[in-house]
Amino acid sequence: MTSSQSPQPAQYRPGSEPARQKLDPHIDRYAARTAGMTASEIRALFAVASRPEVVSLAGGMPNLAALPLDSLSEQMSELVARDGLVALQYGSAQGVPALREQICEVMAMEGITAHPDDIVVTVGSQMGLDMVTRLFCDPGDVVIAEGPSYVGALGSFAAYQAQVVHVAMDDDGLVPEALREALAQAKQEGKRVKLLYTIPNFHNPAGVTLSVERRAEIVEICAEHDVLILEDNPYGLLGFDGQTYPSLRSMAPDNVVYLGSFSKTFASGLRVGWVLAPHAVREKLVLAAESATLCPPTLNQLVVSKYLATHDWKGQIKTFRENYRERRDAMLSALEQHLPEGCTWTRPEGGFYVWVTVPEGVDTKAMLPRAVTARVAYASGTGFYADGLGSRQMRLSYCYPTPERIREGVRRLAGVLESEMEL
Ligand code: PMP
């Protein structure tokens, strides 16, 4: 029916056709795959949580105040003055070769032997997540992921209409038996499992780390079931005692696509990350990268490259670690001191996050507006699951606020929880 044939007055009831069109006149034009694209709860929260009176334990912003801003600024202007014609020009879709060599050195700190040819530089590892999902997932394909999992990865999987099946974790990370069960179940249902997406180190949001024994077992299970592993490791160098763990990639180079990032070890706003992939996959990734961005930003890559060549970047990572350890300690002791009986939480050895479970009857999503009124924000657990779980959980980030603000934030949160438990 054309609009000239439909003289009925528009009634703006939510969900009615005119209401949908009023909200977005393009509603009927979008591709079917956009149905899975919904605003993340965390993004929606950013606006309120960033008001100065609110202590935000919600976001995962790195604490860049620890960076040597003066010398970086000098270096950046020098870069444009001396090498501007290269730095401001298009570059290779795969990324600047010198940077790819340096990335190999960075990965060597976690026991990875790699060739620069097998690296594709990306606009943050988020772009890697998008490209890998684009390459491997048809609508309905299964991606197995820890439950809970990184919200940005869930967004990529949803954007390509993959079905996420969560597997349980405990204090030693992903439970191998749960993985076996999920694989058996998918097989029984005739579904194709395309990827195991995992964050083995200092998990976002769970704060736990996969034990070394389990790493070997998980690699073996995936080889047995012919499932490719997508290993996401932005926090691996942020272990508070400087400890690193063998990457899954180092255990099975042919069956792992590895995602790395400078967001947490240097500067998130530069948006420089990378994918390390088996050779054949790397070729496809370059094509995918080309169609997405032509090439990653040359200037930003050169900034990272110069920083790695001239700054004590390992010392800088140590400074970051010390900063985050102090904040983690502040959070754990405040939780111990203030949180009501019946709450439990993880004790991260690195990274940015603590995962809290609250007593039965408390719904963290429903409680959030009341927490914001009490001037504290957190990320409620449901955003980290694709299947609606997580209503008794929340993620608390200690990476950004000062220890003092963290203590105050946890004190406020405890007050909100106590009144919630009395309801
Ligand atoms: N993976 C995980 C587990 C993350 O926590 C993040 C950022 N919070 C990313 C990927 C994306 O990082 P970036 O794009 O900044 O490299």
UniProtKB/TrEMBL annotation:
InterPro entries: Aminotransferase_I/II_large, Class-I_PLP-dep_aminotransf, PyrdxlP-dep_Trfase, PyrdxlP-dep_Trfase_major, PyrdxlP-dep_Trfase_small
Cofactor: pyridoxal 5'-phosphate
Key words of the record: Aminotransferase, Pyridoxal phosphate, Transferase
Region (Disordered): 1-23
Record-linked Pfam families: Aminotran_1_2 (PF00155)
Annotated GO MF terms: pyridoxal phosphate binding; transaminase activity
Residue ranges of domain Aminotransferase class I/classII large in the record: 68-413
GO biological process, one term: alpha-amino acid metabolic process
Family: Belongs to the class-I pyridoxal-phosphate-dependent aminotransferase family.
Subunit structure: Homodimer.
Identification of the protein by name: Transcriptional regulator with HTH domain protein and aminotransferase domain protein
